[in-house]
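Notes from the 1:1 (GR / supervisor)

We went over the backlog. Supervisor wanted to see one worked example end to end before approving the batch request, so GR pasted a single chain during the call. The sequence is below; no edits were made to it. Supervisor asked that the structure be written out right there so they could see what the output format looks like.
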Amino acid sequence: MERKRSLGATLLLALTFVIPLSAQESPTEVQQLERALSASPDHGGMWIELAAAHARAGNQAEAVKWLDKAVARGLDFDIAENPAFAPFLETPEFKALVEKARVHRKVVSRSKVAFKLPEKDLIPEGIAHDPKTGAFFVSSLARNKIVRVDKAGKASDFTASGQDGLWAVIGMKIDPATRTLWACSAEAAQQAGASGLFRYDLDTGKLLGKITLPDKPQPHLLNDLTFGVGGEVFITDSKAGVVHRLRPGKDALEVLVGPGTFVYPNGVAASPDGKKLFVADFARHLSIVDVATGQVRPLPHPETVNVVGIDGLYLHAGSLIAVQNGSGADRIMRFRLNAAMDAIESEEILESRNPLFELPTTGVAVGDSFFYIANSQLRNLDEEGKVRADAKLEESVVLEVPLGD
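Structure output shown during the call:
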């Protein structure tokens, strides 16, 4: 199905800046994926994509090898529904794989619709919640703006398209103590690379400040952020592979974790004491960052727990809540941490295989519920960040799933 090919393109797009191709190279699809996998060898979603590429090239043995690796890891995905594997489905090897994969197929339905967004071409990515008013704020990739949804579910523009120099708006967080909304924004064109951090007054909508990073000498994509203690802000920069820190009262970002450690840092959450960050490297794994030193180490987890392909990441009641959209079936996960919060003890699927899912992206914990964007429809954007002419868009839906035990 086309969705699988689109996922492969998305993963390649996320990784090509790490190992760029020269102007003289015209690699095959398999070679491109192998090159990307060299930067992210543990990414189960890439194993599936590489298997499909080998199948399209007629390499059945290689396709079986990579699918078997993904099945053994416990990834939840559909072999029979991917047209790349259709020519081989009646072979004994593929029949056995299909049966093994069924064991890991889990449908978990606990979510209910919280509200819908009437602008079908919004292409939402980030979501935040104001505890004072009960309003939600949703960012738009295609319309370069932020939408406010009141307690009654009525949506209105918090910012106009392109206001204050906004590009595509990505991750957002609200600081209730200062009544401010912080938003990451980036140029939509994939060949560009300027990005910015914007700060707004929640009550007036007035821009209070912004910090922008140019596209040279390297591209940037400020993707998501979290708050530390004492007013610090930490921001992931996916294109640069960096985690930035903004100290209180400063108007310039400083690098906490430099390039080379992460491939594509995305979701980020801070521990309650502010001493460590949990960072989701979309292409690799979850990591712990020591805020005092900037040192990074992988977050230990059981072998059967899949921690790649994570977009949004949040800390709630001693667990990490994750929106996982890049490795097998889209799902909402809870990773339970140990008492020291330095290792994952177990996982729980909160939602999986919801028929409304179309690349869920981020969410926000509100009390004992998690509200998240179920169908961003991100795959309907072209390389310039515009909605494709042939796109078949639906209303975007925000779902609510309970977090209580």
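Supervisor's comment: The longest helix spans residues 2-15.
Batch request approved.
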